[in-house]
Amino acid sequence: MKNFCSGAAAAAEDALVVRELKKRYPHTEEHAVNGISFRVARGEVVGLTGRNGAGKSTTLGCVTGRLAKDSGEVYVCGEALVGDGRAAKRRLGFVTDDHAVFDRMTGREYISFIADVFGVGREEREARVAEYAALFKMTGRLDSPVGSYSHGMKQKLCIMGSLVHSPELWILDEPMLGLDAEAADALCELMHRWAAEGRAVLFATHDARAVERVCDRVITLEKGRIVLPSGGERVCGG
């Protein structure tokens, strides 16, 4: 593994920089993530692959601040993920693999709640909700309770909520699960567009078709370590 440039200034060149990240869960001997380092450049879609238990979800949990890392450094658009990590977290959007939504809210209320958290103005949020609802065929269901949604509809809602603040780094954990073919195609196109507009995407997936269609690079994990980084790591001056 090549060495990274040191410091937040160098990290700001990329949407995400991860250095020597480690995470071990209580009552386990082995690390779920064991000293991995990688980067995601602006304008890039990077796929994170590996078997079940390889460390994909743990990695994404740590780089988003959803899980506390044991050691290592994480920079999101130059902001260090330390303390409450608020500055770094404001730069990213995260689609989890567990549909963390509020069933008693309507879809529109849920997205408005996320927009309030990120300080998105009414005009901006309404335009983005309308765009993504049309893309994912959700326009007629946004005023229904989330509890009445199917698995796939909840996935679409989580995707929409993760984008309402137009994050510079978009992170998704198994985003194709529960989506029909049309919605999966729309998501692939959206990820590609997101990167083409100068932002970045990191997503964990088992979907070989999505990897082939969307990714600029693939990083494969095995037992918490990177075994197949495609494209290498940036070095100082490179």
Can you put this structure into words, describing what you see?
There is one protein chain. The protein has helices spanning 8-11, 56-64, 86-89, 107-117, 122-135, 151-163, 181-196, 208-214, and strands spanning 14-23, 33-41, 45-49, 71-76, 79-80, 92-95, 169-173, 200-204, 217-222, 225-229. With 238 residues, it is of the alpha/beta class. A six-stranded mixed beta sheet has the order 6-7-8-3-9-10, with helices on both faces. It has a four-stranded antiparallel beta sheet with strand order 2-1-4-5. The longest helix has 16 residues, at 181-196. The chain is globular. The two termini are 14 Å apart.
Features:
238 residues; alpha/beta; Rossmann fold; 2 domains; six-stranded mixed sheet; 8 helices; disordered N terminus; disordered C terminus
Largest sheet: 6 strands, mixed
Rounded to the nearest angstrom, the distance between the terminal CA atoms is 14 Å
CATH hierarchy: architecture of the largest domain:
3-Layer(aba) Sandwich
CATH class membership of the largest domain: Alpha Beta
* Count, helices: 8
- Give the low-confidence spans: 1-10, 232-238
Which strands sit side by side, in order, in the main sheet? 6-7-8-3-9-10
- The helix content is 25-40%
CATH fold-level label of the largest domain: Rossmann fold
Shape: globular
Radius of gyration: 17 Å
The name of the CATH superfamily of the largest domain reads: P-loop containing nucleotide triphosphate hydrolases
User: What is the string of SSEs from the N terminus onward?
Assistant: HEEEHEEHEHHHEHEHEE
Number of separate strands = 10
- Secondary structure class reads alpha/beta
Q: Whole-number average pLDDT?
A: 90
SS strand fraction: 15-25%
